[in-house]
Design goal:
By secondary structure, chain A is α+β, with helices and mostly antiparallel strands. Chain A contains ten helices and four strands; from the N terminus they run E-H-E-H-H-H-H-H-H-H-H-E-E-H.
């Protein structure tokens, strides 16, 4: 019998993915659920809905609410919050680097730590995650040599992997982040669905 | 010191307002928080965002997810769920009748019960809430004579009250339902924020 697992889908620019990323490993550990971190790009999915930026920018009422809601959530979790400028950040570079660390073949021990550190840099410290120097700092902070990893992130193979992941997200019907998917095809959208998704995964063995 | 209260804003066509309406009175009672039921119309608010129907129809991926998510939520709460046809239902009549029952001057004891019964008729039994016969049945089921109430619902005064309520919702920055607002101006959107809103209201005395 396979251990229960949950796929955690996120775009690094996604605001509600920040608290999800900061919580998910501890909660999954308590629940005995394994995790697959699945960074992908929301941009192409938004574009297919006719949006050229975040819906939080397109619909200012919703955007205004989201920042206040996120502030309350972070306060409840004792997480610092700084609003990154500009918003949304360009998440392509971070996603490509994360895929190097999360690679199935070479499963590097720093992949998940890198993802968490990118969220922290962006939303706790307000740093720009589209800046290769910032990404390099994050890698070096994890004891990972930045130059070869950033080079690997830009390889054609790795670019294709991110494209394939984003296409898989589209096929699965994802439309936002964070999203959690179970082995039996159930989809849960939003940081506020994380606990429910873990319960589902526990049942799904 | 005033007792803590929470305003519960809903459009009768709103899907996630169904579980909220079925839960809120018991949860508010346990929390010692008073409630104001505030039926309003989302239509004019959606229109101001350029939408001519529910976003769940405009964005099919989100709509598909919403129905599945609602199904899981209702299963967890042991609430029956039938998808109403068409969706969204026209909620104008139900909102006007509810305002008669919830009227400040003549606070009728059936106002909240009527709201809950409309949600049950629509989402548990799949009945059409734009049908005066259905609304009449619901009123009679509560021991309320339907004809005079439906007549009062159509009075100019009552129509103006619903318009004023919807304008107040817009001024407060509401963009969806259910929404919960506290006396100190905090806004919580979504059935999944009900517990958090009640905690906030308890603190806000």
């Amino acid at each position: 019998m396979a251990a229960p697992t949950l796929d955690f889908w996120f775009d690094f620019a996604s605001t509600y993915s920040y608290p999800a990323a900061m919580r998910i490993r501890a909660l999954a550990g308590e629940a005995g659920v394994g995790l697959n971190f699945r960074p992908f790009l929301l941009g192409p999915i938004f574009k297919s809905q006719g949006w050229d930026t975040s819906p939080f920018n397109l619909y200012p009422l919703k955007g205004h609410y989201m920042w206040r809601d996120l502030e309350r959530i972070c306060t409840d979790l004792s997480l610092p919050l700084r609003r990154p400028e500009p918003f949304p950040q360009q998440s392509l570079l971070a996603a490509r680097v994360a895929l190097v660390g999360l690679g199935e073949a070479s499963h590097e021990p720093w992949g998940e730590e890198f993802c968490v550190a990118v969220y922290r840099a962006q939303f706790a410290h307000g740093r720009r995650i589209d800046d290769a120097a910032v990404i390099g700092d994050i890698l070096e902070g994890l004891g990972v040599p930045a130059a070869p990893v950033i080079a690997a992130a830009g390889s054609d193979d790795n670019k294709m992997r991110l494209r394939a992941t984003t296409e898989e997200a589209q096929r699965r019907g994802l439309f936002g982040a964070p999203t959690f998917t179970t082995c039996d095809g159930e989809l849960f959208w939003g940081n506020d669905r994380l606990e429910r998704a873990l319960l589902w995964a526990q049942r799904d063995r």
